[in-house]
Amino acid sequence: MIPSSPNLENRNSINLKDAAGKYFVQEAINIVKSKDEGFLEYQWYKLSDKKQYKKISFVKFFKPFDWYIGYGEYLDDFEIEVMEEAKKRLNLFKFDKNEYVWTHNSKYILLQHPYRKKDIGTDDTNLVDKKNTKIIQLFVSKALEKKEGSFVEYYWNKPNDNKLTKKIAYIRYFEDWDWVIGTGLYLEDIELILKNLKDNKEKEIKHILFKSTLFVLIILFLVIISSLLISRRVNNSFLSYKKKIEKHKDELEEKVRDKTIELHELNEQLEEKITQRVKELKDKDEILTQQSKMVALGEMIGNIAHQWRQPLSAISTAASGLRVKKEMDILDDDDIIEFSDGIVKNANYLSQVIEDFKNYIKGEKLKIDFDLKEAILHALNIFDSSIHNHNLKIIKNFKNEIIVKNYKNELVQALVNILNNAKDALKKYQENEDDRIIFISTDIIDNKAVLIIQDSGNGITENIINKIFEPYFTTKDKEQGTGLGLYMAYKIITDSMEGDIKVENSIFNYNNKSYKGAKFTIILDLKKE
Question: What's 381's domain CATH number?
Fold first, then answer.
């Protein structure tokens, strides 16, 4: 049975399809076979209409007759019903007694209005407000500008009131139905609502204040009563405790006197022990210092012998030359002056060497102004024999005029100790003498004098790098090291010179070759202007 197409009744419709080529009968049979009932969409004719329209149907399987029974609704008819129902509901939607909702389409045709029902379907293109503004055109244009809607101000009279009143409307366009829906509020109503809210809040606040005040007074009264009761109990307890305190007062004072005497005796004993311990530590430091200097003295004797060898040879050669020329009777005044100058020059050099070593050994604790470069060159002069004996390559990079006020001789001693440590590492780990490199540089960083000594001696093992400034710590054989050199350097820089010294392993490139070694950084205060 199919009322819209009786000619199809009592015929096999399995291959029946709609205008879009969809076999909707087959789909309906598949639905009832798989789940007994369900929905499907297709196109079909309306009664007395040769055009097909979209339709949605519900089909259900009727087992006794092996039938499936269906019921359908044309989507456009259903949508029209929904739109009409929506208009009815919008007419009912009123708030604050003067406010309502109205609807136009984008062609300015009035579709819904609770107070203009007789004008439904009217073209409101030329409808104006009390200021002659074509408000429906304005509403539609504003709604089409923004999907989220727009606010529009205009002038209109309230229902059943001819008074001209300013109004603000919210307008929004619904594209699916081509509807422009709007609603508004009269500004004086908004002001009245705000005034009522304000009045209500003021009343509410006054009521809360009254209740709060009453509550506070009640609590205050209870607190006063409780305080009086508690005060009596506390006073009685206080009198009882006072008697007990007075009873034990003498005993306590006697105990305090005894403890004071005991503490005084302990304090005297502690002061004596502290003084003794400080003396022991001071003596130990002096012993360590002397041991370090004795070790350095052995190195210096070798240095002195090396540095004297060349000038003594020159003096000997000059003296021999004078004697030979005298014996050959060819000695003249120019020869005497030339040989004498050479002897004097080399004698002065020997004297300067002695002076440098004397200052190093003497180690006078006198703060003086000196250029960091001079102290480094002084240390290198003392270290000169080790440089030549072990073919060390010293690369210097000094920044001019870095003046500090500190203990120059002690800094020289610390530098010699660090250089000796670098020499031992280079001897041990760099068999190729061309790779025995020591970099010495100075700079001013963050208003501090910075001195860096970096070698290519393969660095310091990570698990002992934090111990190298400890006294007697050494990785050398007992015959080769005492473990005091770097300890004394640390004490000089941090304690005497009030500076800082740190060590780390560093990798650097020199002449297109990569090296690893220890990097000592010394930081000192600059001379204050």
Answer: 3.30.565.10
